[in-house]
Amino acid sequence: MRFWTFERKSLRIVGLLVLASILVCAWVLRPPVQDPEVPPRPEAVEPAADEPAAESEGNFFIEYRLEREMSRGRQVELLKTVAQDPGAGETQRAAAQERLLQITRDLERETSLENILRAKGFRDAAVFFQENRATVVVPDLTSEEQATGIINLVVRGAGIMPEDVTVIGHPGEFRS
User: Fold this and answer.
1) Of 4, 76, 86, 147, whose CB count within 10 A is highest?
2) CATH label, 2-31+54-169, candidates 3.30.1360.40, 3.30.1490.10, 1.10.287.4300, 3.40.50.720
3) Whether 162 contacts 151, CB under 8 Å
4) Would I find Transmembrane helix among this entry's keywords (predicted)?
5) Are 134 and 164 in contact (CB under 8 A)?
6) Res 131 pLDDT > 70
């Protein structure tokens, strides 16, 4: 009976960690506050060909994070169902709980590295962990040295091997 109580506590802790991670992501992705004296920009206006594609860049990173969160949300929902199913075997429930913990750890690492990359001067960044591999998407990737610096940062921050890190410059955002 005590073992069941421990599992229930673990599920509550995992649930709280997932909720906290989602709230942090929601806070990071919140839209900027519009100054009431400045009229909002019309959304239907396309940027001119000679203007930087900052608007489309922002949309890419926002859409990427939203899609990542929706995908993770579906995974978490399914795993919670398995972890709470009394008909599931003990190994299945334990595997579901372990995967929930891994998703939480990945979300924390992704958010942390995205914030560090922004602090290092990138306008935006998207990081995705899957198993022990990381994919990093950044705008304005201009040199191999810059990509190597990003790889080193991810290796130190995530504890993975350099060959397991892929750095991608967002298409259309290369500037010479």
Assistant:
1) 76
2) 1.10.287.4300
3) yes
4) yes
5) yes
6) yes
Confidence of residue 1 (pLDDT cuts 50, 70, 90): very low
pLDDT of residue 124: 87
Domain ranges for the chain: 2-31+54-169
What is the C-alpha to C-alpha distance for residues 93 and 85, in angstroms, rounded to an integer? 8
CB 71 within 8 A of CB 129: no
* Rounded distance between C-alpha atoms, residue 26 and residue 68, angstroms: 12
Among 36-40, 71-75, 121-125, 149-153, whose mean pLDDT is lowest? 36-40
pLDDT digits (tens, 9 = 90+) for 3-30: 444 456 665 666 656 656 675 556 556 5
Question: Would you state the structure tokens that stand for residue 130, as one six-digit string?
Answer: 């899957």
Token pair belonging to 29:
């992705």
pLDDT band at 60 (very low <50, low <70, confident <90, very high): confident
Q: Is 139 exposed, middle or buried (0-12, 13-18, 19+ CB in 10 A)?
A: buried
Helix orientation angle between 54-84 and 2-28, rounded to the nearest 10 degrees: 170
